[in-house]
């Protein structure tokens, strides 16, 4: 090595890659020392926000040291390789059978499910099963299979819009309103016809955290069935609530206790308390997942069934889910979710006590709540301005417009996850009060930023 080549003793910020990396956006011509590359990446991500103060995301940002150690020991496992990692595959099945039991499947042994990269993939698999079963029924009856539609709330998560776009299904949105802030069965009949493959019910609306009353939706569909003969199933998008309701609202009928519920998905990486990205989807029984959606493939010396949009994917998150199931059990999950809800209620009541705001909901469903600026409070600032002021102090608390018929309503939302303590919540409330006092002292409106980026759910 010549004297001008870097070595471990060369000061890290005096190494050539530090000087060259910004000159172009292409693969560097020469390798660098590991520590140099590591430092460059660390310098980049240092500009990210603090995950613990990110109250916009539902995704988990904290796990115990033992889980982190397990993660580092398992991140090289490819869960699709069931021949090489048969025990990881067995643990995956154990996890979704635990969920089938948790969600009151009539016979957990007869249920079927799978892990996914996240709940978006899980939703698409649930939607595909609905579409394919509808197609089979139409074909058996000698009818065409054109123009299927799926009915859902206008406050649905964007993954359902993607599903409809990618898989040629017409989305039919039931608008939410002040009177009907969730899909609750109202006006459902006007959206359903013989081409409806199913209805999506959300356990924890992304905009506000509110549960959609699945039992009321099911009752409305029962009435439609009785009057028209149309027998429409439900898929429950329980991305968040499916890992909250069994512990905080165990008597609430939203799951497989309702015969019309065919399938349920959840995010292991949300209130399943696992790092991203992990989702789950479970069907009431195997007959509801059409066989022609399941592929049997030869891979690395073995034959295996697979039903997924992705192929190779990490197995470590599945092991983390199993760790959490073993670590917490029913009582532990109840304690964790109850504490998150306690913090959410504390924050909601603190914000409700401020003259500037009206609560939209208070976190009594999942530990998520939203509020809006009180009518007539001010013309000089908006919730977007409060969002910006809080971001300056490290807190990410998003503001955004509600959908469709409520598009003129702007709300701000907090997601409480494990790791947000009462102490941190008090600090956040103090910061909100401080920034509201600052904004209330304005004697004219703040400039409107036309390029302001909206919050993306």
UniProtKB/TrEMBL annotation:
Q: Which cofactors?
A: pyridoxal 5'-phosphate
Give the enzyme's main class according to its UniProt record, as a single word: lyase
Q: Which Gene3D superfamilies does this one have?
A: 3.90.1150.160, 4.10.280.50, Type I PLP-dependent aspartate aminotransferase-like (Major domain) (3.40.640.10)
Q: Which SUPFAM superfamilies match?
A: PLP-dependent transferases
Q: Name one Pfam family in it.
A: Pyridoxal_deC
Domain of life where this protein originates: Bacteria
Belongs to which family? Belongs to the group II decarboxylase family.
Q: State the protein's name.
A: Glutamate decarboxylase
Question: Per the UniProt entry, what species is this protein from, by scientific name?
Answer: Orlajensenia flava
